[in-house]
Design a protein that fits this description.
The strands form 2 sheets. This protein has a 5-stranded mixed sheet with strand order 3-2-1-4-5, sandwiched between helices. Strands 8-7-6-9-10 form a 5-stranded mixed sheet, sandwiched between helices. The chain is about 45% helix and about 20% strand. It is of the alpha/beta class. The protein has 10 helices and 10 strands. The two termini are about 25 Å apart. The longest helix has 27 residues. The structure holds 5'-O-[(R)-(carboxyoxy)(hydroxy)phosphoryl]adenosine and zinc ion (ZN). 5'-O-[(R)-(carboxyoxy)(hydroxy)phosphoryl]adenosine binds next to helix 5 and helix 6. The site of 5'-O-[(R)-(carboxyoxy)(hydroxy)phosphoryl]adenosine has 19 residues, from helix 5 and helix 6.
Length: about 325
């Protein structure tokens, strides 16, 4: 089954053709990063406008790269939630028009389910059930993936997402957008013990996260150094900060491993590209003798191939939509 998938939840316009949920025939992304760099973050109105300009070209290229015509496509899939509402609406309306005009089924895909499914592309042997750590710019979740379309959130951030905490810290350190990615590039080889940041504690649910206190402490550190006229050791501050964020992520994942004994651990979302997370989570899972999966780097950030992968399983589960499908800015992964 060939699925044409569309992704426009944030600042990347993506289209892809994916066969049977696992084989990527094409994946095209029009990135807007150069424009958002000017503002230090994603400007929603600009993102929506750029999606409008790019989407037909990106979809056409995805079809031609796959060597297929629209006739050879069996269904149209689209990210409908969660994300920037104006950005989502561009993809959703385009997909609805395409599905209607070509008389093909329309498959709505939850963005975070898509991130998890990016691992199906790179690891043909991977099947649910497993434990997933989803770490993106807007979300940090620990999820029991009971089946391809059956999710149970066991932990989530109480405040900032891991990616957001990295982006805000990077910004105060003078690193350009996207901050998490640039902090990884600039600071990965630094001394992770050079600076001490408090490891946040969360009451009531041992699988929940909190990053806002940590973010505030790095902002205060940098401001204090600047006020005293002292040099800001970006490389070592960034290395120590990333290590602390990753320690929190690994700690909660380890607690979930101990309690739920999952068959494997899957990491997904933009932050899954982080070199420190890849390194330290490998150590955590090795300690417990449990297989660990990351997406290929090209599928860590937002892309439509992951949407096409998840869409196949949504279709098999009967989850198609009518032309009344709407975009939703926030929606739990298990809804
Ligand atoms: O999943 P994603 O592409 O978009 C959302 O769904 O939010 O995640 C974007 C986030 C941003 O916060 C970005 O800074 C972060 O992923 N990110 C990274 C790295 N690459 C992207 N964070 C840390 N290390 C990286 N290598
Ligand atoms: Zn994402």
């Amino acid at each position: 089954m060939n699925i044409l998938a569309i992704e426009s939840s944030c600042d990347d316009t993506g289209a892809a053709v994916v066969k049977d949920g696992r084989q990527v025939l094409s994946s095209v992304i029009a990135s807007q990063v150069e424009e958002h760099i000017l503002y230090g973050g994603v400007v929603p109105e600009i993102a929506s406008r750029r999606h409008c300009e790019s989407i037909s070209h990106v979809v056409r290229k995805a079809l031609s790269d796959a060597g297929l015509t629209l006739k050879e496509i069996d269904a149209v899939a689209v990210t409908f939630a969660p994300g920037l509402i104006g950005a989502l609406l561009v993809g959703v309306n385009f997909a609805k028009g395409l599905a209607f005009a070509s008389k093909k089924p329309l498959i709505p895909v939850h963005h975070l389910r898509g991130h998890i499914a990016s691992n199906y592309i790179s690891h043909p042997e991977l099947k649910p059930p497993f434990l997933a750590l989803v770490v993106s710019g807007g979300h940090t979740h620990l999820v029991n993936v009971r089946d391809y379309t059956d999710f149970e959130v066991i932990g989530r951030t109480r405040d900032d997402a891991a990616g957001e905490a990295m982006d805000k810290a990077a910004r105060v350190m003078g690193l350009p957008y996207p901050g998490g990615l640039n902090m990884d590039r600039v600071c990965a080889g630094g001394d992770k013990k050079a600076f001490h940041f408090p490891v946040p504690r969360v009451q009531d649910n041992e699988f929940d996260f909190s990053f806002s206190g940590l973010k505030t402490s790095v902002i205060n550190l940098v401001h204090n150094l600047e006020q005293k006229g002292e040099s800001v050791d970006i490389k070592n501050i960034g290395a120590s900060y990333m290590h602390t964020v990753v320690t929190c992520l690994c700690d909660r994942t380890e607690r979930a491993i101990t309690q739920f004994h999952p068959c494997s651990v899957v990491v997904a979302g933009g932050v899954s590209a982080n070199s420190v997370l890849r390194d330290e989570m490998t150590g955590t899972c090795r300690k417990h003798g449990i297989p660990l999966y990351f997406p290929e780097l090209k599928y860590c950030g937002d892309n439509a191939a992951m949407v096409g992968a998840q869409a196949y399983y949504e279709f098999l589960a009967g989850n198609t939509a009518g032309l009344d499908l709407n975009a939703t800015a926030s929606l739990d992964i298990d809804k």
